[in-house]
Amino acid sequence: MQFDFFPSRTLTLYLAKMFAVRIVAMLAILVLVLMMLDLLSTSGEILAAPGNGQGELWTYVTLRVPQLVARFLPYSVLLATIIALVTLNQNSEVIAMKAAGLSAHQVLAPLLLTAAAVSAISFVFNETVVTRTTATLKAWEANDFGPIPQDSGVRANVYLTDGNDILTAASLAGRGEDITMRGVTWYRRSDGGMLVEQVRADTAAYANPGWRLENATRFGVASADTTRLPDLVVAEGLTPEQIELESVDADTQDFVELFRSIAAYEEAGRRTDELRATWWHKLSGPLSAFLMPLLGAIAAFGLARSGQLFLRAIIAMALGFAYFVIDNAALAMGSFGGYPPFLAAWAPFFLFLLIGETVLIRTEE
């Protein structure tokens, strides 16, 4: 029995079903509460747009819920792990399983199998649903929750550079020479990087060369005066091809599409550390659900009547949340070039995999 990872089919199905039900329940509770809080803070902005009503609120919910599910699914697995294992411990079921000859790893095996299935489902869900809804929601928010331009190339919060100068846009739609921007701001800087002037405009279109800002307002930093301009052409060195390259949003592209964008960046000699770290994290992120039963395993063992069960649950929760903190920190370091992209995405996963195994072996095996 010691060499059989799943010694009992009945026990495996019992533990897997119990764990899966608690994952779904915790995820539903988290998403429901967070969606209500999010809607309370955002509904005013949605309803402020002309013509918006209850239907647009439901549209926002359908676009926001997939993001919340993707973000908080690993947290749900962690909480479900602690609840399931504490319940098993309190009911002396863990003692019965160990008395029957099962090792700690065999007790956790059905939970790890369920968590692996959750990780696979999470990856597919992120790639097929979350990327699409994120792109639509960002474009809608950039358009102040007004009608979204009917264009598949809509992007939000675009940041572009032309030498020392910077061009930003709240949203960008179209491709090639038909690109149009909304909520445009142009920052002209000196050779030393000091801001010389700032120009704001409602829209911008390609002027071949440069980009024509319509209804522009110029603010001179040195003179501190504001000037109204009917139109102004800026960023003459910025081409539509460069915009296609610079306006990549990793959150709105799936695994394959982002890989192609990274290849295009590298071909153009551009820095890709941030995009490559995010690309690797599209794999390591969903796998975090697989770690949660291992990190929460400390709550399963030890005598419930010893008075340490609550402490064990707190330690399990601390281990799980420490993983998420370090994972986010490593990803941020990778974005800034502090860590290599692969290390930034995978180091927290393997680190806590070893920590979880060490704790389990030292305490129970």
From TrEMBL:
<keyword id="KW-1133">Transmembrane helix</keyword>
<dbReference type="GO" id="GO:0015920">
    <property type="term" value="P:lipopolysaccharide transport"/>
</dbReference>
<dbReference type="Pfam" id="PF03739">
    <property type="entry name" value="LptF_LptG"/>
</dbReference>
<dbReference type="GO" id="GO:0055085">
    <property type="term" value="P:transmembrane transport"/>
</dbReference>
<dbReference type="InterPro" id="IPR030923">
    <property type="entry name" value="LptG"/>
</dbReference>
<feature type="transmembrane region" description="Helical">
    <location>
        <begin position="283"/>
        <end position="302"/>
    </location>
</feature>
<feature type="transmembrane region" description="Helical">
    <location>
        <begin position="107"/>
        <end position="125"/>
    </location>
</feature>
<keyword id="KW-0472">Membrane</keyword>
<keyword id="KW-0812">Transmembrane</keyword>
<feature type="transmembrane region" description="Helical">
    <location>
        <begin position="309"/>
        <end position="326"/>
    </location>
</feature>
<feature type="transmembrane region" description="Helical">
    <location>
        <begin position="12"/>
        <end position="37"/>
    </location>
</feature>
<keyword id="KW-1003">Cell membrane</keyword>
<feature type="transmembrane region" description="Helical">
    <location>
        <begin position="338"/>
        <end position="361"/>
    </location>
</feature>
<protein>
    <submittedName>
        <fullName>LPS export ABC transporter permease LptG</fullName>
    </submittedName>
</protein>
<feature type="transmembrane region" description="Helical">
    <location>
        <begin position="68"/>
        <end position="86"/>
    </location>
</feature>
<dbReference type="GO" id="GO:0043190">
    <property type="term" value="C:ATP-binding cassette (ABC) transporter complex"/>
</dbReference>
<dbReference type="InterPro" id="IPR005495">
    <property type="entry name" value="LptG/LptF_permease"/>
</dbReference>
